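assembly run, all chains below
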Amino acid sequence: MKKDLLSIGDLSAEEIYRILDTAEAMREIGQRPIKKVPTLRGKTVVNLFYEPSTRTRTSFEIAEKRLSADTLNIAVASSSVLKGETLADTAMNIEAMAPDVIVLRHASSGAGHLLSRICTSRIINAGDGTHEHPTQALLDAFTIREHKQRIEGLKIVIVGDLLHSRVLRSNVLLLTKLGADVWVCGPSTLIPPGIARLGVRVSTSIDEAVAGADVVMMLRIQQERMQGAFFPSLREYFNTFGMTAERVARAKPDAIIMHPGPMNRGVEIASDVADGPGSVILEQVANGVAVRMAVLYLMAGVEDEAAA
Amino acid sequence: MPVVLDADRISRTLARIAHEILERNRGIDDLALIGIRTRGVPIARRLAHSIREIVDRDPAASSSAGRRPTTDVPTGMLDITLYRDDLMRHTVGPQPVIRRTEIPFSIDDRRILLVDDVLFTGRTIRAALDALIDFGRPKSIQLVVLVDRGHRELPIKADYVGKNLPTSLSQSVQVRLQEIDGRDEVEIQES
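ok done. output:
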């Protein structure tokens, strides 16, 4: 593996499977009476979050603590960023205190790459703008493999706000790399130009896209990133693209329903589907801890390029 | 490359250890076997099987005389990778592969028999002890090894030893087991 995890594109299929296999072993630690192993004792991990996050930040923090790393969280709302400090300056100041890993969430695409160039600490991208969210795609793959025992050859449909979704980009890169038949679906205004070049089938008909699917992955409508009218109303969006029980019925009978959260019930997904028998949404959250433990463990073994 | 234990010797050695375990523990109550991955696991399973056979033949060997055990001695497996003391020392090359730890019973108040193939520096056993303590508070932990090759770096001693094998540091001891390697033998190699 490389020094940093910025994009799924940095990982080979073999490395992805290695992370998933390691996560299998890591999950068992969460079921012990003492949910902690001494592996990263003495390592410092800084969680630097420039955007609100509950799931991802908590998940990383639990993963770090279960591996015995020292962790600290910097939430921008209470930091010097409000006093006008740039990302690079903040990062260099944190770097001066010699952490081993920085987990970064930022509203700008490529923020992780910027830090990667100026920091010797390992950088894990926990979501950069509309670019990528690699650990989310890894935990999604882990969850899919657990239910379907494979990823290759599955029909996987991703529905929703494709344009603003970093989860989409990471998932498309990962799932196509592992040989899945990936379909993406959403209103034409929310389909990023050129997405088909990544090797996915594009559809604006949810009925066509969902037909015979093994996995249905819903994406959140990201109103906070929308400047302009991409569709007439949330109600109309739900009527055209919302995941209802009738639409789920077009997928395979054992299809699983996924959502990276946070969910907008009644916008991209109906409540009875979100809480229904095929839903693995909370399993995704549970698996996130094991997958992030695996990433932290495997990255800790990477040769330090600066020291080499 | 001399073979120091062949399949027959290994099988007789394990049978002897099974007898010793029963004798010293006066029965199988609260006993549990935990094999250290990789080759401690099949050895632990074989010991569980031998112990069961002995008790089936002679119920008096079990402490509750006359009562036959309905199950084998519980057997688990332990991966100690995350507890290794050299894990973050040389961060060159990929990290060792981690495999699942499976201890499907509570170790609280049990007499644990920790099983490994080769006892060498003692560092693996140190890691295993730390790992086990994270699962609970056993009544006792005893150590079973097929081969003790010496060169201890920590104050650790086995309770049951299949064979003491004097070696030099330049040699390595290869334990091969049917379940993993397709045949049973212990071989000394010059490295």
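Chain B has four helices and eight strands.

The longest strand of chain B covers residues 111-119.

not gonna interpret more than that til we talk
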